[in-house]
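Most newcomers find our protein records easier to grasp once they have seen one. Sequence and backbone structure share a record, each on its own labelled line. Nothing more is needed to start thinking about how sequence determines fold. As an example, a complete record with its sequence and its structure tokens follows.
=====
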Amino acid sequence: MDCVDFVVDIATSLTEQQVRCLLSDLGTIARIYLWRTDKDSRHHFFVQFNDPKSVARACALSSSHLAVHSLAVESDMAGRFRSIVKATCEVLPAPEDPQHTSILNSSIIPLETVPSGSSKRKKTRRAGVRSKLRQAMNTDLDLDKASLPLGRPALDPILKFCNGSSLALPVNPADLVLTSRLRFSDDKENYPRQSMHIASSPPPVLAVPIRRPSAPLMMPGGLASCNESTKLSGLPNLQSTLVLSLCGESIGYDLDTLDDDTEAIINLLTITNSDREKWMTVGASYRRKGKFAAAAAVVSAMINVMRSHGMADEDMSPAFLMLASCETELGRQSRSRGGEETTKSMKHLEEARLCLQKVYGSGSTPEAAVLGPSPGKGGARNRPFPGGGLQLADERILRDAQQTSELLTLRADKRRLEDQYFHERVQRRKLEASMKDLEKEVFKSRQLENSALEQVRAEVQARRGVEQRAQKERDTRLRLETEWDRARQKEEKRQLGVQAIFKELADIFQRAANGDAASVSSLLPRRA
């Protein structure tokens, strides 16, 4: 039977210990491999059981927060698992020997020897990884001569190759913990590491063995206990070792060896794209040692990095709370010997207040949390005055009473301003409604004005046409009157001539009637 039939792939945000406690009732867990951590703090585990029924029961627990897939149906994941374990294994039934059971419950990940054919390629890749790691931490990460194994350990009775050969642990897992202070110059690249020979398999993920607690046993009282017999000597403490992933390889960083200068660890956490848990773990380690400035620097760097990834400040409340506590302690340490505030202490307290306002908002005054006493912390601030502790207590009471009265006054002013703001808002809404009505009336008036102007323009055009026609008629009338006057004058002259002629004729006829022929002949015209 193939070894992948006993393995499931789990994607969850739980830690390894929580996953182990969750799956401990489903069957015996042989090993747990942490092979990837996403940017959203979602971990991917390979969990190997000793019974195929446990795999089916684990797949039944799949949900939106806990994705469980069997490697028997996931060929890509099976190839990745084989690249980690580096063998096609056959899982035997669970042994009855307690010694074998303790081996099964151990979380040590076996590493295989590197074949001679791929040693050159592995050396090149490891050299590049170690070069990047040295550049990030400004120090060398090598193995000490004392940490090299003295001999090959016993064969693992559970895992076997397909050809029947046993899979042996090449080195003692306690000797492969990388720290920032170990170095030697002889044969650095000759210790065994994982390698991959299958071209179609995914790139190998180097697992650095770290001591982790064994599978917990569920007690009748509901308490979980770990088998302490599986702990190997020489492994670092679980709480003091930080596992980081760089270029596909996992490294262990001992938190007990943190330097006062935080630039190296900040660069390392930034390059490895560590999640918030690792940043906060480093900051808490500094704070536990009393190095509040270093802790504040690490947490501030984490906030800047998370902001660059688009994370909102509301999702980083624990970081702001830790930063506020560190700034508060730095403010207390910066006070004068008499307990009076200095410029530096006031600056730290102001930074703490701003951090608390980012968590709780600016509506409340966190002065009590910032300026309150810290019992159990020694220093110049807690030293009594020469007059004794009574004077300090009286001053503290008076200061608290003054702050309380000022707080009450500020609250009353705040309520009064809120009432004024409410009335002003109501008045503003009424004025806005009136302004909208006026705007509507103005719009209608403008429409009427435009229509009246159009009518006026039309009337002006009509009046101009009528005036032009009247002018033409007037000119015609004047011309006709002038012509008529001329004709009338001409007719009058003609009438006067006719009257003179008829008068002369009458006179001739009168003379002729009287018999005066001589006068008549003289009046007649003569022929030529």
Notes: Confidence is low (pLDDT under 50) at residues 87-122, 137-238, 364-388. Residues 409-501 form one domain.
